[in-house]
Write a structure and sequence with these properties.
The chain is about 60% helix and about 15% strand. The protein is of the alpha+beta class. The protein has 2 domains: about 90 residues; about 120 residues, Alpha-Beta Plaits (2-Layer Sandwich), CATH 3.30.70. Helix 4 runs antiparallel to helix 6.
């Protein structure tokens, strides 16, 4: 039997937590031994086998459940990855299609811009041609330097259409580009004639004084007018009949367009005047 003094010393030197644990375990083992002694038997091998079987079954169930969960998770992950890859492929295909569309639209834009430039240039050229034709034919308003001729009735004679015609013809022959009488623009279809006592231009009656405006080179237009047969005829007529007239240069004249109703043609053929003349000569029998 151990020495009580030694045991007491050991207990005194043993840490309190260790002592409590040992005491508790010793008492638990003693109670279990006493209970088994009272029952008169010990655990059999069959009981141990059953316990082991249950433990193994539970462990197998846990392993199976874990395997099933891992398999399902793997399937979901695989499906998600495949779906993501498919979405990426579709996105790339859509992006490539859009990029091709952008290239096509850019090429179309360049082509349309070229066409627009061509149409704009053609429209500007046509507008310039219309303006030139309007100035030449009299159906477009024009401005520029020129001369102004004022003719009035005399004391004993009034100015007639036959008195103004030589003046107009002389100005055309002297190089005038556009002519108007009292605001009425002259064209190839403009009649100058008397209807009663009044002179009519473009079928509009005029009253004296008659102001004739002619756009041209003011440095030469007056002198050139007096060198034409028509200009000399007008000068001599004015001197004989005694109606006053004067001519001066003007830095800027503004002539209106002729009435649009004069543009309407009663008879016209396709082609230029030269082409039609050649055609008529060919069609005329010898």
């Amino acid at each position: 039997m151990p020495d009580s003094r030694t045991t007491t010393a050991d207990r005194v030197s043993t840490p309190l937590l260790t002592l409590i644990t040992q005491q508790s375990l010793d008492e638990d083992y003693r109670h279990v031994a006493e209970r088994r002694a009272e029952q008169g038997s010990t655990p059999t091998g069959r009981r141990r086998l059953g316990t082991a079987t249950v433990v193994v079954a539970v462990f197998g169930l846990l392993v199976t459940v874990a395997a099933v969960q891992n398999s399902q998770r793997a399937g979901v992950q695989s499906a998600s990855r495949a779906s993501l890859i498919a979405n990426i492929d579709r996105g790339r295909a859509d992006l490539a299609a859009l990029q091709e569309r952008i290239v096509d639209l850019r090429e179309l834009d360049v082509s349309l811009q070229d066409n627009l430039d061509d149409v704009t240039a053609a429209a500007q050229g046509a507008q310039a041609r219309v303006q030139r034709l309007g100035a030449v034919t009299g159906f477009g308003a024009v401005t520029g330097p020129g001369v102004r001729v004022t003719v009035d009735d005399g004391d004993h004679f009034t100015v007639r259409d036959r008195d103004l015609r030589p003046l107009v013809d002389g100005l055309w022959n002297a190089g005038a580009e556009a002519i108007s009488i009292n605001g009425q623009r002259l064209t190839a279809r403009t009649p100058i004639r008397n209807s009663g006592a009044a002179i009519h231009v473009n079928f509009r009656p005029l009253s004296p004084p008659y102001v004739v405006l002619a756009i041209g080179d003011p440095r030469t237009l007056q002198a050139d007018l007096m060198e034409t047969t028509s200009g000399l005829t007008f000068r001599d007529t004015a001197a004989q009949l005694g109606f006053p007239w004067n001519m001066d240069n003007v830095d800027r004249l503004s002539l209106p367009a002729a009435p649009q109703r004069l543009i309407q043609l009663d008879w016209a053929v396709e082609g230029t005047a030269k082409e039609n003349l050649v055609k008529r000569r060919k069609d005329t029998p010898p």
